[in-house]
Write a structure and sequence with these properties.
Layout lengths: L18 E7 L5 H9 L7 H6 L6 E6 L4 E6 L7 H8 L4 E7 L6 H12 L4 E7 L6 H15 L5 E7 L14 H12 L12 E10 L3 E10 L2 E2 L3 E4 L4 E10 L2 E3 L1 E2 L3 E8 L11 E3 L7 E10 L9 E7 L2 E11 L4 E10 L6 E6 L2 E10 L7 H12 L3 H11 L4 E2 L3 H5 L3 H13 L3 E4 L4 E4 H17 L4 E2 L1 H7 L5 H13 L3 E4 L2 E4 L7 H16 L6 H8 L3 H13 L3 E5 L2 E4 H18 L4 H7 L4 H11 L5 E4 L2 E4 L2
Parallel strand pairs: 1-3, 1-4, 4-5, 5-6
Antiparallel strand pairs: 2-3, 7-8, 7-15, 8-14, 9-13, 10-11, 10-15, 11-12, 11-14, 16-19, 16-21, 17-18, 17-20, 18-19, 20-21, 22-24, 23-24, 25-27, 26-27, 28-29, 30-31
Helix pairs in contact: 3-4, 7-8, 8-10, 11-13, 12-13, 14-16, 15-16
C-alpha cells in the first residue's frame, strides 16, 4: 500500500481479465520461496515471520504481466493456522497448491485442497517444488499421487508444474525456466465466472491508518463495483462510511471491480472500529440473522454432531455457532449465533472444531423465517435445487401478512426483476396475490380474510365510507394494492357500492355523502363539547376516509360552525364561546387565570387547557404575563 492515498489522479481503469491466485500447501513446502522467485517479494511483513521463516498470516503481492495482473495471496501452511488460510481462500480465482517433491502429499496438502474444493474454487495448478532434491522416479511417483488425490475432488487439476530454486549445478537461476513456465500458464488460464449478487460484496482482511489519509482497509472485492465517493455500509457496525480513494495493487483508480485486491481509504470510521471479516456493501441490501439454514458436507473421516458448537468461517469472518441438524441424509442444518451472521444465498463456508475442519457447505436461507421444521425442510430442498417458484409459494403461505422480495439479492441471488417475474407467474396462476409496487406477495386466503373483514365493517356501520388508504390504517400489514383488490372484488361481486374513490354499504341511506357527513361530524363535535377527540380518531370512529373527513372539517370551519383551535383540535363554535366566557369570569374573579385555576373550573387534561389559554392570546384585551393571563389596562 503506497502512502499517497490522498492524491489519486490516474484514470484507474482495471482489466476484467485480472485474477487472484491463492498459494496453499503444507508448511515448509516452499510457497513463500515460490512467490519470491516470481516477483522478488515474499509478501511476509511480520517481524515474527522473518525471524521464524514461516508465514503466520495472510501475505499479499502481485505481478503485472502483458496479459493480466495476477494478485497472489500466500496463506499459512501450519495446521494451527488453517483459519487464516480459509480467510484468504474465499476470494481467489485459481488455487496454486504447492507440494514438496521430497515430502509429497502431507496433512495440510489434503486439508487445503479439500477446503478449496468446499469453497467452490474451480481450478488448481499444482506446483511440485524442490525437484532438485529428488530423483526423476520419485517425481513421477509424486505426480501420480497428486493426480489420484485430485480424482476425489471436483476442483480441476489444470497442470502439475515443476519448480526448483537451483539449477543442476546448485546455483540459483538467473532466469528461472520453471517460473517462466508457471507465469505463462497463469497468464493463459481462463478467468472463472463469479456469482454476481448485483451489489458490493467486500470483506475486510486488514484495517490500519496512514498519516495524512486516515483509515485504510484492504480486502478482496468479489461482487459489484466500488467507486470513489461512494457510500458503503459496514454490516457488523451498521455504520455508513464513504470511499475517499481507491487503490488496486498499489495503483490509484477511480473504481474497483471483482477479482481484485482492493485498498479503500474510508471516511467516517477508524481502524479500531473495523475487524477482519467485516462486510462492506450498500445500505439496504444485506440483513443480518442470528439463525441461518445451510447444507453441509463433512470432510472425510469427520462427522457433525447435533446441537454442537463450531467455528463458522464465512468470507473472511470467523464466529462461534451452534449447529442443529434438520435432515441428516441431505445435510440440511441450521446455524445459530449470538451475533448476527451476514450471509448470502449459496455462499460457501467452512465449519471447524478446534484445529479440525469438520465440514463445508453452502448457505440456503440467509435470513431466519418463523418456520416449523415440517415446512422448512421442503423449503430448503426447493432452494437447493433452485426451484424458486416453489420456494416463493412456500414462503408466501408461511408469511400470511406478506412475503417481501426486497432482499432477493441476498436471499436468493436474484434481482428484483427476476423475483417479480416469478411472483407474477404465481399470481397469474392463482397461487398467490402479488403487489408489484411493494414487491410483496400474500396468500390468497388473506385476500378473502380482508374481504370478510370489510363486509363486517359495513355490517356494523352502514354509514362507513372506506378506501384502500383508510383501511391500511387499520390493517397496517396489508399493501394498498391488496386492499384495493379486496374492495374492487367486493364491488364486482355486488356486495358493496362504489362512489368515485369511496366504497360504501349497499344498504346505506345517505343521499349526498358530504352533506350527510357534515351533519354527522358537526353533531358529534357538539356532543363532545369541551373535549372533542382528534380528527383522525373521529374519522376512525365513523370509519370514513381521512381525506374525505378533512374536506368536511374544512367546510364546517369555513361555514363558521367549527373552530380550529390547534393542529389537531377542532371544536364547535358554541362550545368555544362558552369556554371563553368561562375564562373571562375566572380573570374577573381572581384577577388572572392560569392552569391551576382553569382546571378547578374545567377539569380537563393539560393538552386542552393549554390550547384554550393560548386561544385567549388572540384577544386584544388579554395580556400574557409569565404563565398567567390578565386584563390589559
Amino acid at each position: 500500500m503506497q502512502q499517497n492515498l490522498g492524491n489519486l489522479t490516474t484514470d484507474g481503469d482495471t482489466m476484467d481479465n485480472d485474477i487472484i491466485v491463492g498459494l496453499c500447501g503444507h508448511i515448509d513446502h516452499g510457497k513463500t520461496s515460490l512467490i519470491r522467485a516470481i516477483n522478488g517479494f515474499d509478501g511476509d511483513g511480520l517481524r515474527e515471520e522473518k525471524e521464524r521463516g514461516i508465514t503466520l498470516d495472510l501475505s499479499f503481492s502481485h505481478l503485472r504481466t502483458p496479459a493480466r495482473n495476477i494478485a497472489f495471496i500466500d496463506v499459512p501452511g501450519h495446521e494451527k493456522l488453517v483459519r487464516q488460510m480459509i480467510a484468504g481462500a474465499y476470494g481467489i480465482d485459481v488455487l496454486l497448491l504447492v507440494v514438496a517433491s521430497d515430502d509429497g502429499i502431507m496433512p495440510q496438502t489434503r486439508e487445503h485442497l479439500a477446503i478449496a474444493d468446499m469453497l467452490g474454487i474451480s481450478q488448481c495448478v499444482c506446483v511440485l517444488s524442490k525437484i532438485d532434491k529428488t530423483t526423476p522416479e520419485l517425481i513421477d511417483k509424486r505426480k501420480a499421487e497428486i493426480a489420484e488425490l485430485f480424482s476425489a475432488h471436483t476442483i480441476a487439476l489444470v497442470e502439475i508444474v515443476p519448480f526448483a530454486l537451483l539449477d543442476s549445478q546448485g546455483t540459483e537461476f538467473l532466469h528461472n525456466p520453471y517460473v517462466e513456465q508457471l507465469i505463462a500458464l497463469l497468464q493463459s488460464l481462463p478467468k472463472p465466472a463469479r456469482r454476481d449478487y448485483g451489489m458490493v460484496v467486500y470483506y475486510i482482511d486488514r484495517a490500519f491508518s496512514i498519516a495524512g489519509a486516515g483509515c485504510v482497509v484492504s480486502g478482496t472485492l468479489t461482487s459489484g463495483t466500488i467507486a470513489k465517493s461512494q457510500e458503503l455500509l459496514v454490516c457488523e457496525t451498521q455504520k455508513q462510511v464513504q470511499v475517499r480513494n481507491i487503490q488496486i495493487h498499489d495503483e490509484p483508480t477511480p473504481r474497483a471491480t471483482p477479482s481484485h485486491r482492493v485498498a479503500l481509504n474510508l471516511a467516517h470510521t477508524s481502524p479500531h472500529e473495523l475487524q477482519r471479516g467485516f462486510l462492506l456493501t450498500q445500505k439496504g441490501f444485506v440483513r443480518g440473522a442470528n439463525l441461518i439454514d445451510v447444507q453441509v458436507r463433512c470432510f472425510e473421516g469427520v462427522e457433525i454432531a447435533h446441537n454442537a458448537s463450531y467455528e463458522l468461517c464465512i468470507g473472511a469472518r470467523h464466529l462461534p455457532v451452534r449447529l442443529n441438524v434438520l435432515d441428516e441424509e441431505l445435510g440440511l442444518c441450521s446455524l445459530s449465533a449470538r451475533e448476527p451472521i451476514f450471509a448470502l444465498f449459496m455462499q460457501p463456508f467452512i465449519l471447524r472444531e478446534g484445529n479440525v475442519s469438520v465440514c463445508g457447505g453452502v448457505v440456503l436461507n440467509p435470513i431466519n423465517d418463523p418456520i416449523k421444521k415440517k415446512s422448512k425442510i421442503p423449503l430448503l430442498k426447493a432452494l437447493l435445487r433452485g426451484d424458486f417458484a416453489q420456494a416463493f409459494a412456500t414462503l408466501t403461505h408461511i408469511h400470511r401478512h406478506g412475503f417481501g422480495v426486497v432482499s432477493s439479492t441476498q436471499r436468493f441471488g436474484l434481482s428484483h426483476q427476476e423475483s417479480s417475474a416469478i411472483l407474477h407467474t404465481l399470481h397469474e396462476s392463482g397461487a398467490v396475490f402479488f403487489d408489484p409496487r411493494d414487491l410483496v406477495a400474500y396468500p390468497l386466503n388473506e385476500l378473502e380474510w380482508l374481504k370478510n373483514a370489510i363486509l363486517d365493517i359495513f355490517y356494523k356501520n352502514k354509514h362507513a365510507l372506506l378506501s384502500a388508504q383508510s383501511l391500511q390504517l387499520k390493517y397496517k400489514w396489508a399493501s394498498l394494492g391488496l386492499l384495493q383488490c379486496a374492495l374492487d372484488e367486493l364491488v364486482a361481486q355486488r356486495f358493496i357500492l362504489q362512489r368515485d374513490s369511496l366504497f360504501l354499504a349497499k344498504n346505506n341511506d345517505m343521499g349526498d355523502i358530504e352533506e350527510f357527513l357534515e351533519q354527522k361530524i358537526y353533531g358529534l363535535l357538539c356532543e363532545q363539547g369541551y373535549a372533542p377527540i382528534a380528527p383522525y380518531n373521529l374519522y376512525d370512529s365513523l370509519e370514513i376516509d381521512r381525506k374525505l373527513g378533512d374536506r368536511i372539517l374544512k367546510r364546517l370551519t369555513k361555514a363558521q360552525k367549527v373552530l380550529r383551535v390547534a393542529h389537531n383540535l377542532f371544536i364547535s363554535v358554541d362550545s368555544m364561546s362558552a369556554i371563553v366566557t368561562m375564562m373571562r369570569e375566572i380573570i374577573h374573579t381572581h384577577g388572572y387565570i392560569d392552569i391551576a385555576l382553569f382546571r378547578q373550573k374545567l377539569p380537563l387534561s393539560r393538552k386542552y387547557l393549554i390550547n384554550y389559554l393560548e386561544y385567549l392570546d388572540r384577544f386584544g384585551d388579554i395580556v400574557k404575563e409569565g404563565d398567567r393571563r390578565v386584563m390589559r389596562f
